[in-house]
Amino acid sequence: MVSPHVSTESEAPPNEEAAEEVRQKRRIWTFSGIAGAIVVALFAIGWYWSYQALYPSEYDITEVALEETGVAEPKELRQGVRTTSVLIHNMDFLMTKAGGYLSNDVMPPSIFLDNMPNWEYGVVIASRDLATALRNQFSRAQSQSAEDKDLGFGEPYYYFETGSWILPTTEGQYQNGISAFRRYLGRLQQGRAPFYPRADNLNQYIDILGKRLGSYTQRLSASSKVHEESALIIRGKPSVAFTPMEQTPWLEVDDHFYEARGYCWALLHVMRAIEEDFHEILRLKAAETPVHQIIRELEATQSPLLSPVVLNGSGFGVFANYSLTQATYIAHANAALIDLRALLNI
After folding, report:
1. How far does CA 106 lie from the centroid of its chain?
2. Which of 203, 205, 211, 251 is most buried, most CB within 10 Å of its CB?
3. How far apart are CA 102 and CA 308, in angstroms?
4. Sign of CA pseudo-dihedral 89, 117, 122, 317
5. Where do the DSSP E strands lie in 194-304?
6. Are 280 and 344 in contact (CB under 8 A)?
7. Euclidean distance between CA atoms 83 and 277, whole angstroms
8. Which burial class, exposed, middle or buried, applies to 136 when counting CB atoms under 10 A from its CB (0-12, 13-18, 19+)?
9. Where are the domains of the chain?
10. Residue 232 scores a pLDDT above 50
11. Helix 199-221 crosses helix 253-277 at what angle (to 10 degrees)?
12. What is each CA distance from 292 to 69, 217, 279, 334, in whole angstroms?
């Protein structure tokens, strides 16, 4: 009979090597769990920071103008205030949205993101176009008029490089520009700053928009079709060949898509502001209809994506082609811009 106090071989405690092996496995599993949790957390943060590019949210331009100026009623807003407020808000939004300005970040998860930085770049390009138009066209009574001091000071800051993270930071330079435009806005609301909503001023800005949208249309279209080199034949003699456009590499398709999406988001609010600030001249030129069409097409460019990636299908295949769909909306908006220019020239 075996005594209860005598340990059997199966009840013997593990030796030191076995215990160390168990501890090693536990450390590996613990490290793997922590690493996995960090990866999941970074992925979730990156997705949250990119949410604006995936599901763009619009804002009320009049409410933004009222907030910027501090006035109580929309009827108290002077001409040009909405347009200037949109210029300020679009750039300020880049600094204050979830994650802040990401294009110059050098730490994860920002360094692994590309959709939002490209979206930001599109907004910056649209803001640069408007800042230049405000400085050189909208605020000048004639070609030899002196420029507004705050506009002349603020516009160059918007052209600072987008990826500087230190000495000086891109955010700091953009904030300097925003501050200058806010000073102009304050004087504009007080009636002490120039703004001339004329047809010729608007026409020059529309010309820039047409070229910009045309470029985006070509770049988006190149995601599915190679533009072969060709030449014009005039009177039997070849002329200068067109510049060939190579097919967009599949890893860069989403870059062009989100840049165009960001530009159209900013331009959508700019056109809504122009519709208000240039209302009289648009009515006199019977140009309200093309402006409405431009706004409708730009709204369509901001439709939410149903796929986590930018699909790049071809022809009548199974998958959609997001770039071609976006290019179609932009091309329609550009066609309306051409009609608007024609009416403004009358």
Report:
1. 20
2. 205
3. 20
4. negative
5. 231-234, 237-241
6. no
7. 7
8. middle
9. 55-222+237-345
10. no
11. 160
12. 26, 20, 12, 13
Tell me: pLDDT of 126 over 80: yes
Q: Which two tokens stand for residue 264?
A: 């159209």
DSSP string, 101-153: --TT--STTGGG--HHHHHHHHHHHHHHHHHHHIIIIIT-SSTTPPPPHHHHH
Do residues 200 and 209 lie in contact, with contact meaning Cβ atoms separated by under 8 Å?
Answer: no
Is the Cα dihedral 217, 86, 130, 292 positive or negative? positive
249 vs 253: CA distance, rounded Å? 7
Give the angle subtended at the CA of 208 by the CAs of 205 and 211, to the nearest 5°.
150
pLDDT digits (tens, 9 = 90+) for 269-292: 999 999 999 999 999 999 999 999
182-229, pLDDT tens digit by residue?
Answer: 999 999 999 999 999 999 999 999 999 999 999 999 999 987 755 444
Per-residue tokens: 251: 């890893």
Residue entry with tokens 């988006």: 220
Q: Where are the alpha helices (DSSP H) in 134-223?
A: 149-158, 170-189, 199-221
Q: How far apart are CA 237 and CA 233, in angstroms?
A: 5
DSSP 8-class letter at 223: T
- Transcribe 14-36 into DSSP letters: P-HHHHHHHHHHHHHHHHHHHHH
The residues near 171 (Cβ < 8 Å, ≥ 6 apart) are: 95, 100, 101, 104
DSSP 314: -
Evaluate if residue 231 carries a pLDDT over 60: no
Residues constituting the chain? 346
